[in-house]
Specification:
Layout: E1 2-6, H1 17-30, E2 34-37, H2 45-54, E3 58-63, H3 66-71, H4 73-83, E4 87-90, H5 101-120, E5 124-128, E6 136-137, E7 140-141, H6 142-149, E8 155-160, H7 161-166, H8 171-177, E9 184-187, E10 189-193, E11 196-200, H9 209-219, E12 223-226, H10 236-250
Parallel strand pairs: 1-2, 1-12, 2-3, 3-4, 4-5, 5-8, 8-9, 9-12
Antiparallel strand pairs: 6-7, 10-11
Helix pairs in contact: 1-2, 2-4, 5-6, 8-9
Length: 251
Amino acid sequence: MKTGAQLYTVRSYTQTEEGFAEVIKKVADIGYPGVQVSAVGPIPPRNVADICAGYGVGIVSVHTNPVRLLNETDDVIAEYREMGVSQIGIGMMPERYRKDAETVNGFIRDYIPVAHKLKNAGMTFAYHNHAFEFEKFGGRRIIERLAEGFAADEMEFILDTYWVQAGGGDPAQWLRDLAGRVPVVHFKDMELHEGAQRFCPVGEGNLNWPYIIEACRVAGVEWILVEQDDCYGRDAFDCLRSSYEFLKKAI
């Protein structure tokens, strides 16, 4: 398994091409060999690819706007083909699909053709979870409906450890349950601060990392992407470095 950085962690620095290049250099200097491109500014896809290649950093995956992916699928495919990436992820389903079992099924119906198109283009649709996917409608969790509704070879999951835990799930068990469909995972730790759950660098919180890492091996995970949604005033690159150093010893 390889360890990469999810660029959402440093999104405030990636809104210009110059800033993006500086981020990739810093990420490479920490030791990360790959990134997930997410929440970057309006930078041409070819330039993104060239900058990453210039520092020896691979593009593992991307997060794209789900509405645009649905309505402009061909354009999105062309852009990410230019970037040289094959896993096309969305951060979550749009809010209108989250109301009940029928709306969740509507999401599945709407995005199955998208998944087909991506597969035919040599790409794969990937779904990143938050906590709400662990709500049950009619006795079935949203994430279960997604796993059953999409063909296994047309949709992968980018399982997020923090959000599985926040949804009341066991990250390691869900990795095992989705084995073969989770080539990429988000490692995100959780701590309790002044009585509230919050994000922290991997290894500084309370998630059971040895258990989760072993489940990753069983599930066929290829890339572990470190992400921290909020650093609460701490330097984001320091957080990425702390996570990297922990995982270098743990994996």
